[in-house]
Amino acid sequence: MKVKAHSAATIVVFTCLVAIVSFEARTGRSQSQNSKNDSQNPKTESLVKPTVLATDRATTKGVAVSPFAEAATQNFALRNELTWTFGSKQQHGWYLYDLLIGQTLKVPPAAATPDFASAVSTWQKQKGLSPNGVLDENSWMALVAQWQADRLKDKTPATPDQLLTAPPSDFFDPERLPGLRQVEKTTYTAYKAMLAAAIADPTLKLAHTPKGELVPTEKYFKIISSFRSPEYQVQLRRQSPGAGSAGLATHSPHFTGRALDLYVGGDPVDTKDANRAIQVKTPVYQWLVRNAARFGFRPYFYEPWHWEYVK
Ligand SMILES: [Zn+2]
């Protein structure tokens, strides 16, 4: 309760501050005495070049102001409150995707800052959207569509000659049967290269052998699921009829052998918000968001564990 009251007070104070500051900026601009300075007036210039001005703050009575201060206030609220629909389920906010958003917009994932709003605006411009810097439903769905478009398009099931059977040591469940340890060959090579880079990163502290294999007790980065035949997928759907379309798709990228579910923490493949909130904070997930593209892997934004090899 204390925390809630405190953050509510912070929002109120911040909102008031932004309101005062923007009011002053507006009245300031309308005064004729300022008109001769219009070319140097940051507020006027901001209408043309908001990105340049994100770091170039005007000051009003000693308070730093950004042209994106109002957008930042709105993003702060939308991050938790935006309602949108995905996989025929109502979703709340975009806070689970902070890191992916930051990676895509090339900005630190701090949603309440003017710099973040400025980066949103730059991206909106590229997409032909109104560059207001606010990640509202329209812009958010466009960002989701962009991520979805980066995924595997061809979901033709892999033929046996395209697959290899990976050793049990690569798998989260070492008891997994050989038929369920198949991976598309080039995907497997890319996975091993990515794993070697992750092991070489001391911040991840992955427990490994001198040969660069993950030890049996190390769970992070191991493969939970790889190639799944259309027949096996049908069987899985029968076993859990409640699973949403997002969970067990009829045209699954897993048919290709190029989709890997990797262990990134928490309950391995549970889409509950609380579970994903744990997963998106693990160093392994954060490493994947920053580095997987170098190895040809693209995320499925909704499932932190699901990565697709798209080369
Ligand atoms: Zn998957």
Structure characterization notes:
The longest helix is centred in the N-terminal third of the chain and has 29 residues, at 2-30. Strands 7-8-10-9 form a four-stranded antiparallel beta sheet, with no helix packed on it. It has a two-stranded antiparallel sheet with strand order 1-2. The protein has a two-stranded antiparallel ribbon with strand order 3-4. Helix 4 (69-81) packs across helix 6. The chain has 311 residues and is an alpha+beta fold. Residues 1-5 and 7-60 have low confidence and may be disordered. 30% of the residues are buried. It folds into two domains: 1-149, no CATH class; 160-309, Muramoyl-pentapeptide Carboxypeptidase, domain 2 (2-Layer Sandwich), CATH 3.30.1380. The protein is 41% helix and 12% strand. The chain has helices at 2-30, 42-48, 50-53, 69-81, 98-105, 114-126, 137-149, 185-200, 230-239, 273-279, 283-291; strands spanning 58-60, 63-65, 83-86, 89-92, 163-165, 182-184, 223-225, 259-262, 297-300, 303-309. The radius of gyration is 24 Å and the shape is globular. It binds zinc ion (ZN). Zinc ion is lined by residues 225, 254, 259, 261, 306.
